[in-house]
Every structure is written in structure tokens, then in C-alpha cells.
């Protein structure tokens, strides 16, 4: 009995039909993709819920089968074949990951930077997986997109349909708010983008509904920000998470981007408060690091007076009012903090550390400063 069973088990591995999945944009509207198995080309299928993923099961293929993806013309003839052979990394698997056409590696084994401290709340989300480059497929009204890119300074958000494709996930969402991101980055040809998934109408993105796609135009290595995120995680500092993605808008390639959390209420809830929705909301202020338009100061946390009017416009933008803020004085809590900072005298304060621990996450602040100094 035992012998028969194990033979049956072996047989099911050896003859398992493999389902192939390739991510590809045909060079013409009538093109398609296929897979070359044993010098036979099998056409793969794609439809409006899966495009640009092309899928098909090849009878008789096994985990040991070598294969290559091919781009096909309307007649089904190969116009381009991958110049390398693929093989499943897990011989017992019956489906390939979603593999990008002409990119040999889908998931890299990247060693993690060791954690010196535990991350405050290690981010367990499918959105950010640094071992792979996911594909962000965006479909948006062409005329509105053209308008947005033609005049970035006055760009309006649009509603877009998005599809996020990783090695093992295809996540689609319609009617997502999509627009340009950043200030100085708008001066570059390669624009940065932002998505907002509206949780009020059940739009989801792996618990991270506010995302930015950074263009990384200032960094030719395209690695600095990701490395810094890794280091902050390693030091247990609450931070944005990130991962690289390929961006396609209306089937046109826009390049490699770093997808990161946009700092928002939901980000703070997930990252700082471990998803606890009962934590009271504090104030959220966006500070500008670069003096602009002939301004003298940036957001340097120097106390200049008790009222918002005492601070240069644009240096401190209130994003959310805290319990001590009002509509008239939206950064009152921050101003109180700056005043404490100015008045602080370590010599006359009985317990200086306790003084600051009451006002801030002192330990997190010191870790941030250490990394700021090193980075
Ligand atoms: C699209 O393709 C997927 C995968 O092959 C399949 O599961 C799905 O039913 C198809 N949808 C439509 C609308 O044909
Ligand atoms: C997808 O990639 C992740 C790493 O980013 C890996 O942990 C996971 O096992 C992969 N899934 C499949 C089905 O290959
Ligand atoms: C699209 O989203 C907006 C909110 O952002 C909502 O008011 C509108 O009803 C949605 N439209 C569709 C077709 O879902
Ligand atoms: C915090 O603000 C969000 C809206 O941004 C709200 O949904 C949530 O209920 C607030 N939490 C508390 C505890 O007030």
C-alpha cells in the first residue's frame, strides 16, 4: 500500500501541469505573449481583469521544465524570445510567479540589515517587499494625464484604475485618486506621483492607503532612500516603508520608482500605533526643509512668537489639528513645544531627561539624530 502511494505521489509531481504567468506589454495592440516549452510555443491569455499578466497552463510540463517567454504578433508568431532559459525555483510548484518579460530574476535573496533594536511595529504588509520589483499598472483618462504632465505646477488629480502585480498577487482597484507629488521634484522631467485609496468607499491597498511613488531623480544610484529606510528600521525608528516598483501609465513605461508610505493619519495609525484605532489623534504638521521663494528660514523649530503669523508662510503646514490646536492657531501645540525648546536650561531643570520624555519620544529622537548624523 505504502509503495503504491509513494509512486502515485511521485507521479503527481512529475506530471503536474504548470501554469505560466508573465507580465508583459506587447509592442503592438494586437500582440500577445506565449511561453516556449520544449521548442513549442503555447499562447498565453490575458483579459481586462489580469492585463498585463498573461497566463496559461501547459499540459505535460513539470517543475523541471525549462521555458522562456515569447512576445507574439497577431498571427501568433514569435517576434521576440527571451535570451535565457527559466526553470521553477521550487520543483514541486505548479505555477510560476508573475515573472516580468525579459527580467530573469523575480525575487532576490537580499540579506536583511540586522535589527539592532526591534522595529517599533515591523511592517507586515504585502505592499513593501524589498526582494522584488512589483509592477504598477495605471489606467487614466489620456487627455487628463497629458494635461497633468504638460503643466505639473497646476496639475489636477485624476481618477485612475490601478493594478499592482507582485510575484504572487494581482491587486486591482478602480477610481483611485492619482496625481503628482512633491514640490521641487515637479521641476524635473520624470515626475513623482501619489495615490490615495479612499477607505470610506472600501478602496484598499494592503492597509497602506496613501502612497507616493518617488522619482529618485536626485539620486543616480536610486538606492539611497531605500538604504536609509532599512537603517531606520534596523534602529527601531518608526519610519515610512518602501519598495521599488515599475510604473506603467496607459501601457507606457514611466520607469523605476520607489514606492513609499505617504505620511498620513492611516500611516501613523499603522506605524506608530500598531494599527490601534482607539489612540487619540495628535496634531500633524508638515514642515518644509528648504527655504523657497526668497524666504530666509526653513522649519528650523526656532521659536519666533506665540502665533502662526510669527512664522514664515509654508514653513509649517497643519495637516491635522491636535487637541491643543484651533482653526485660528493650527500649530499651537508645536509652538508650545518650540517655546519649551527655547526656554530649556539643563542647569536649572531638575531632571532634564524626564522633562523631555514628557514632551517627546526621546529615545526615538536620539536614534533618529544618530542616523541623521551618520547618513
Ligand atoms: C481573466 O483571466 C483569469 C485568469 O486566467 C480568469 O481567472 C478570469 O476568469 C478571466 N476573467 C474574464 C472576465 O474573462
Ligand atoms: C513572493 O515573494 C516573497 C518575497 O518578496 C516570498 O516570500 C514569497 O514566498 C513569494 N511567493 C511565491 C508564491 O513565490
Ligand atoms: C469614485 O470615488 C469618488 C470619491 O473619491 C466617489 O465620490 C465616486 O462615487 C466614485 N465613483 C465610482 C464610479 O465609484
Ligand atoms: C482619528 O482621526 C480619524 C480621521 O482622520 C478618525 O477616523 C478617528 O476616529 C480618529 N480617532 C480618534 C480616537 O478620535
Automatic annotation (TrEMBL):
Record keywords, A-Z: Signal
Database matches in PANTHER family: INNER SPORE COAT PROTEIN H
Segment forming the signal sequence: 1-16
Pfam families referenced in this protein's UniProt entry, alphabetically: CotH (PF08757)
Keyword Signal among record annotations: yes
Source species of the chain: Mortierella alpina (Oleaginous fungus)
InterPro entries (alphabetical): Spore_coat_CotH_CotH2/3/7 (IPR014867)
Keyword presence, Signal: yes
Protein name, entry field: Uncharacterized protein
Amino acid at each position: 500500500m505504502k509503495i503504491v502511494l509513494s509512486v502515485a505521489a511521485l507521479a503527481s509531481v512529475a506530471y503536474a501541469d504548470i501554469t505560466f504567468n508573465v507580465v508583459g506589454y506587447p509592442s503592438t495592440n494586437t500582440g500577445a505573449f506565449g511561453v516556449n516549452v520544449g521548442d513549442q510555443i503555447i499562447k498565453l491569455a490575458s483579459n481586462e481583469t489580469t492585463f498585463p499578466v498573461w497566463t496559461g497552463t501547459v499540459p505535460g510540463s513539470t517543475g523541471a521544465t525549462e521555458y522562456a517567454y515569447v512576445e507574439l504578433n497577431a498571427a501568433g508568431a514569435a517576434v521576440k524570445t527571451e535570451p535565457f532559459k527559466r526553470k521553477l525555483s521550487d520543483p514541486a510548484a505548479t505555477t510560476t510567479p508573475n515573472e516580468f518579460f525579459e527580467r530573469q530574476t523575480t525575487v532576490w535573496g537580499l540579506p536583511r540589515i540586522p535589527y539592532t533594536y526591534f522595529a517599533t511595529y515591523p511592517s507586515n504588509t504585502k505592499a513593501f517587499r524589498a526582494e522584488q520589483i512589483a509592477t504598477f499598472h495605471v489606467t487614466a483618462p489620456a487627455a487628463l494625464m497629458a494635461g497633468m504632465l504638460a503643466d505639473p505646477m497646476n496639475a489636477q488629480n485624476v481618477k485612475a484604475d490601478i493594478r499592482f502585480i507582485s510575484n504572487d498577487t494581482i491587486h486591482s482597484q478602480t477610481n483611485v485618486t492619482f496625481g503628482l507629488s512633491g514640490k521641487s521634484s515637479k521641476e524635473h522631467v520624470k515626475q513623482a506621483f501619489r495615490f490615495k485609496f479612499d477607505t470610506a468607499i472600501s478602496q484598499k491597498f494592503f492597509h497602506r492607503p496613501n502612497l507616493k511613488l518617488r522619482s529618485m531623480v536626485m539620486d543616480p544610484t536610486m538606492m539611497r532612500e531605500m538604504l536609509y529606510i532599512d537603517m531606520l528600521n534596523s534602529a527601531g525608528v518608526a519610519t515610512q516603508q518602501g519598495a521599488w516598483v515599475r510604473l506603467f501609465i496607459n501601457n507606457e513605461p514611466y520607469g523605476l520608482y520607489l514606492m513609499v508610505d505617504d505620511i498620513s493619519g492611516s500611516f501613523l495609525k499603522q506605524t506608530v500605533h500598531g494599527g490601534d484605532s482607539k489612540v487619540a489623534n495628535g496634531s500633524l504638521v508638515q514642515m518644509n526643509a528648504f527655504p523657497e521663494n526668497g524666504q530666509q528660514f526653513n522649519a528650523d523649530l526656532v521659536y519666533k512668537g506665540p502665533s502662526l503669523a510669527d512664522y514664515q508662510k509654508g514653513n509649517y503646514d497643519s495637516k491635522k489639528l491636535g487637541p491643543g490646536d484651533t482653526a485660528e492657531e493650527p500649530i499651537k501645540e508645536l509652538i508650545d513645544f518650540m517655546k519649551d525648546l527655547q526656554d530649556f536650561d539643563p542647569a536649572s531643570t531638575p531632571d532634564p531627561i524626564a522633562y523631555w520624555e514628557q514632551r517627546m519620544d526621546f529615545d526615538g529622537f536620539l536614534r533618529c539624530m544618530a542616523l541623521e548624523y551618520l547618513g
